[in-house]
């Protein structure tokens, strides 16, 4: 049997870092403009898919870019920065291509129905919203919000992966990469679903009234990730 | 009241029986595969996949029950949550447990699931009365799915074998998606006002059989397991599942008609 208390005491810093990473992923989801099926039919703003897919996308891109950076550097700041940049690029590309489809394919202007004036550009929104819709496309404020969400999700994802990879253990590198990735993916999915239950469908970004609910999801993610972090640290540290 | 609305789903088979079927079938499959591979031969590894199918059917039934209340978000999210919790618990159980690894994995999964269920109701205020029990069930079913398919691929749940042959090689991703589909897809595909429990669960059997065939294909490259029997039994189960599902679709449909081939260009003019 493994020395549970000893491993936990030795790796308490990594438990904290993993928990912090999970909380960041959970918070980041609230920034990302999620439109679900209505957005896919241009009846709501945001990206036409669910929160879980977008959070997992941002987190996993963070994991991939962090993994690439960890091959050449042990610096936590560099790993987190590359994770953030990777996820921001992924989110921006998703949103800009989505905007092209809305503007040139569907033929609707990006406009939000939640605010009268775009908080960033101060452009009038309500004139451009089609009747019976919740807005459409990705207005500037949603795009900026999504990029912020990508950065937070990428930092969270790479933080979880970096912490898991740093735990003392007796594994060969390929096996450590395998098990750390599996744990990281498990933690991403848990932290992607919790905020999606908090948001319950669609959100436009930080100007959306639903954004105010984020503390609840962050507390929920904190508790859930803390337990997952204990389990992960014990499993990897005991090998 | 059945699917997609708010309220408990109608059940022909009570959930308690499905829980017993999932836990007992799953554990028997996992341990039987482990010991029979040692005693009889590596071709017995297919029993692990049968255990996994018990877990998948249980998971699909639990998803059906909780998603009937309306989650406010897509049904697939709960399947991803199941596998997310399951993969954490399964890896932990196998890593620390040795011979009791699967049992430790199930207990860990139940604790994580229960905790997320309590969080969902108490902090996120989802207000679904069966959320706690359903989350516990879904996490445990996800863990059985992962363990069962991993044993069908390797012939053992010894972590020194599972780690290099399933996790490091990336086959865990196949388990994640194939097992996740079997849990989240049946209710998502069948939901609607005329959703019936037996039709949804038959769809879970069909999806589970596909996961079994995939596990069999992976097993052919591993020394401790044999893929041929797993693939054959998986194909037979898939046929039973698919024809059973088709029969229930025909039973529940108002009418089934053949539309014929699409008209050719000349016929349209």
Automatic annotation (TrEMBL), chain A:
Name any Gene Ontology BP term.
Answer: methylation
The alphabetical list of record keywords is: Cell membrane, Membrane, Methanogenesis, Methyltransferase, One-carbon metabolism, Transferase, Translocase, Transmembrane, Transmembrane helix
Q: Which Pfam families match?
A: MtrD
Copy the pathway line from the protein's UniProt record. Answer: One-carbon metabolism; methanogenesis from CO(2); methyl-coenzyme M from 5,10-methylene-5,6,7,8-tetrahydromethanopterin: step 2/2
Q: Does the keyword Lipid biosynthesis apply?
A: no
What protein family does this chain belong to?
Answer: Belongs to the MtrD family.
Query: What is the official name of this protein in its record?
Result: Tetrahydromethanopterin S-methyltransferase subunit D
Source species of the chain: Methanolobus mangrovi
Gene name in the database record: mtrD
Automatic annotation (TrEMBL), chain B:
GO cellular component terms, semicolon-separated: plasma membrane
Q: Give the GO molecular function terms.
A: tetrahydromethanopterin S-methyltransferase activity
Q: Name where it's found.
A: Cell membrane
Q: In which pathway does it act?
A: One-carbon metabolism; methanogenesis from CO(2); methyl-coenzyme M from 5,10-methylene-5,6,7,8-tetrahydromethanopterin: step 2/2
Instruction: Indicate the family of this protein.
Output: Belongs to the MtrC family.
An example GO biological process term is: one-carbon metabolic process
Give the gene symbol.
mtrC
Q: What catalytic activity does the UniProt entry give for this protein?
A: 5-methyl-5,6,7,8-tetrahydromethanopterin + coenzyme M + 2 Na(+)(in) = 5,6,7,8-tetrahydromethanopterin + methyl-coenzyme M + 2 Na(+)(out)
Q: How does it sit in the membrane?
A: Multi-pass membrane protein
Name of the molecule in the record: Tetrahydromethanopterin S-methyltransferase subunit C
Subunit and partners: The complex is composed of 8 subunits; MtrA, MtrB, MtrC, MtrD, MtrE, MtrF, MtrG and MtrH.
| Protein keywords | Cell membrane, Membrane, Methanogenesis, Methyltransferase, One-carbon metabolism, Transferase, Translocase, Transmembrane, Transmembrane helix
Q: Where are the transmembrane segments?
A: 18-37, 43-63, 75-97, 103-124, 136-157, 169-187, 208-241
Function recorded in the entry: Part of a complex that catalyzes the formation of methyl-coenzyme M and tetrahydromethanopterin from coenzyme M and methyl-tetrahydromethanopterin. This is an energy-conserving, sodium-ion translocating step.
What EC number(s) does this enzyme carry? Answer: 7.2.1.4
